[in-house]
Amino acid sequence: MSKQFSTAEVAEHASVEKGLYIIIDGGVYSMSSFVDEHPGGAKILKRVGGKDASKQFWKYHNEHVLKKYQPKLRIGDVKEESKL
Ligand code: HEM
Known about the structure:
Blueprint (H helix, E strand, L loop, with lengths): L3 E2 L1 H5 L9 E4 L2 E4 L11 H6 L6 H7 L2 H11 E5 L1 H4 L1
Parallel strand pairs: 1-4
Antiparallel strand pairs: 2-3, 3-4
This protein binds protoporphyrin IX containing FE (HEM).
């Protein structure tokens, strides 16, 4: 089973120094190692640090992007009770 995070735990990692976690469709992604390579820029990613960025993600990317980077960036999932 993957590591489970509450939304409060994710919110504590809102900067590159603290891990820059973002949530996409219930998955938790640690973006610190990727911010400087992100083709869309570091700034836009930093703005959604600690938050659910599903809406923003699907606005600019397709499923292939998520599949490709999942093995590298996904560190777990949001706990069920935290999604309610
Ligand atoms: C797991 C998280 C993310 C990954 C792996 C990722 C990866 C990428 C990649 C590979 C591209 C190049 C374009 C493409 O191949 O489709 C891109 C572009 C972009 N990304 Fe992300 N991204 C992520 C999250 C985000 C988030 C949360 C935002 C917004 C808050 C964002 C905003 C953008 C923008 C604005 C572009 C440029 C689109 C364009 O030039 O048309 N990305 N991203």
